[in-house]
Amino acid sequence: MKCPSCGSPQHQVLKSKGNQTQELLLKCESCGNVYREIVEKPQPLEIRIIISKFEESEKGWVSFYPDEILRLDDVLEVGNERVRITSLENKRTARVTESLVQDLVTIWASSVDIPARVGVSVDLHGIVLSRKVEVDRDFAFTVGDVVKMDRTIFRIKAIKTLERRMRRGFAYANVTKRVYGIPVSEKRCNYDLTAKLVETSKVVE
Ligand SMILES: [Zn+2]
Fold it and tell me: Is the pTM of this model over 0.70?
């Protein structure tokens, strides 16, 4: 926008009205000329978002301006929850690490706020006690931890993460699929998962 009288792009907005198109009353900062301009406001686009929660996923729509850039790992507010972008699919059906909103078809995300759901298997001499717990996503399971769960006290002997099976070290709950334990006779434990149990008792072979 340049002043029609002197050509200067420097201006002060005196008035603005309208939604789809905006009518501006501008005052040139160089010569003081007052003039009108009509500008098209970019309209936000509705982009499909798929939010995964445990084994299920939830579909919805989010709106962004076409010239905004989204990246993997960006945290978005969707409704009342925060989600992290895990994948971006553009109009060429390619998965990309960043994209202008106008090129996007689908945003894939996972909820940041919901706890992580982790399987726990305790080998009770041939019978495996298999349960699920929900803990904070940044909760760390460490091989060797002594854990109480209902009446069972066990020691973690292995951890299965999304990528591998570990026999030492620790893993955060958000990448842990299952922890494996063996019962111990100790009475003292590092932590108690009883309140974190999500399913009724289930014993599998
Ligand atoms: Zn001017």
Answer: no
- Pick from 139, 122, 107, 118: which is nearest to 54 by CA? 118
Same domain, 32 and 51: no
Longest dimension (CA), the chain: 91
Output the six-digit token pair for 110: 């996972």
Residue 15, beta-bridge partner list? 25
Q: How far apart are CA 67 and CA 57, in angstroms?
A: 27
Structural domain tally of the chain? 3
38 CA distance to ligand 1 centroid (A)? 17
List the shell of residues around ion ligand 1, using CB closer than 5 Å: 3, 5-6, 8, 28, 30-31, 33
- Do 85 and 74 form a contact (C-beta atoms < 8 A)? yes
Q: Give per-residue pLDDT as tens, 119-170.
A: 999 999 889 999 999 998 889 999 999 999 999 999 999 999 988 999 999 9
Asked whether residue 4 is assigned to any structural domain, the reply reads no
Task: With respect to residue 134, please indicate whether it lies within any of the assigned structural domains.
Answer: yes
Whole-number Å distance, alpha carbon 16 to ligand 1 midpoint, is: 19
Is residue 136 located within the same domain as residue 87? Answer: no
Identify the domain containing residue 85 by its residue range.
45-111
